Amino acid sequence: MSAAARIKTIVANLLFAAGLPVLILVAWNALAKKPDEAVGAEKFYPDPVTVGRAFADNWIGPAFAHEVLPSLYRLGIGIVVSIVAGVAAGTVIGLLPWLRELTEPVLEFFRAIPPPALIPIVMLLLGITDTMKIAVIVSGAVWPILLNTIDGVRATDSIMTETADAFRITRWQRLWYLVLPAASPRIMTGVRTGLSVALILMVISEMFASSSGLGYRIVYFQRNFLIAESWSGIVLLGLTGVLLAAIFGFAERRILRWYHGMLEVERG
């Protein structure tokens, strides 16, 4: 493919990706400007320009370091702890049938408890600290990673397992070169779900007795009827989700390069 053709393809992809956001902004602007006799549309449904100004005033500059970075720090720590704990525990449980049967009722019980319901208990145990907020994030984000890891480890190909036994592959070699690669597609599926849950719980944990963070600022704006500022916080959360999805997509393509290549071969 020539350089001109590559540039043309890149431009076409960018235009295609930007098409829907542009349409959403146009529709948003039209609805915000639509007159409403019962409720002031401009006050409660500000147009994109007003929200953009509020975004620049409240989130760009010192506020980013004071409010956004601490939230991202807690979110990052919570995600890392959830991945490490979920993959480690899920691998052990998946490899040991007796342990899987023993822990299954307990796992189903705790998975059914909504993490926000645990916030008052966690606050009493850990206090109103960053550790409490991280614990809330982990309490919800770890479950999809843990359960998908268990399913992935259980689904390891039996023929490959028997081959490893025949060649007397050591336990650690089997874990590193057979079990974890075989389970990695499902592990990454669990991580994708865990990221979304972690972002939600990050906001919820900061809405309770907190004095900083994205969740705290959004609640502060809502309680003081700062509508445009509240919308700007929601937009920032959406952009954070897009950034997490982009980072995850980049990592997934690198980690599961062999898996996607195998799928392409099967389709071809």
Automatic annotation (TrEMBL):
- Keywords of this protein's UniProt record, alphabetized? Cell membrane, Membrane, Transmembrane, Transmembrane helix, Transport
Mostly located where?
membrane
Q: Where in the cell is it found?
A: Cell membrane
Read off the SUPFAM superfamilies from this record: MetI-like
Tell me a GO cellular component: plasma membrane
Q: By its UniProt entry, which Gene3D superfamilies does this protein fall under?
A: MetI-like
The name on file for this protein is: Nitrate ABC transporter permease
